[in-house]
């Protein structure tokens, strides 16, 4: 089994490990009915519209 010839510095080790904690920004699409941002391929959380029809009941806005 291969063995490293040189010690890996703390900086190099931590830079390699930092890639696991990276958070990616999700892409957003706009709703074709109300224009609110929503996740692609999902019903709009505001109006419940998806693919030219109402797929789910919209969220109640009253308190």
Q: Which short descriptors sum up this protein?
A:
13% helix, two-stranded antiparallel ribbon, rod-shaped, 63 residues, 4 strands, alpha+beta, 13% strand, two-stranded antiparallel sheet
Give an account of the 3D structure.
The protein is an alpha+beta fold. It has a domain at about 25-63. It is built from 1 helix and 4 strands. It has a two-stranded antiparallel sheet with strand order 1-2. Strands 3-4 form a two-stranded antiparallel sheet. A hairpin with a 2-residue loop joins β3 and β4 (about 55).
State the helix count: 1
Class of secondary structure makeup:
alpha+beta
Looking at how many chains there are and whether they match, the oligomeric state comes to: single chain
The ordered H/E elements are HEEEE
Q: Beta-strand percentage?
A: 5-15%
Largest sheet: 2 strands, antiparallel
* Overall number of strands: 4
The level of helicity is 10-25%
Strand order of the largest sheet: 1-2
Shape: rod-shaped
Name the average pLDDT: 85
Distance between the amino and carboxyl termini: 65 Å
- Rg, rounded, reads 23 Å
The stretches of 5 or more residues where confidence is low (pLDDT under 50) are none
């Amino acid at each position: 089994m291969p063995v490293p010839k040189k010690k890996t510095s703390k900086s190099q080790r931590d830079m390699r490990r930092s890639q696991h904690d990276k958070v990616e920004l999700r892409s957003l699409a706009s709703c074709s009915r109300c224009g609110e941002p929503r996740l692609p391929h999902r019903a709009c959380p505001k109006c419940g519209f998806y693919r030219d029809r109402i797929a789910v009941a919209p969220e109640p806005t009253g308190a």
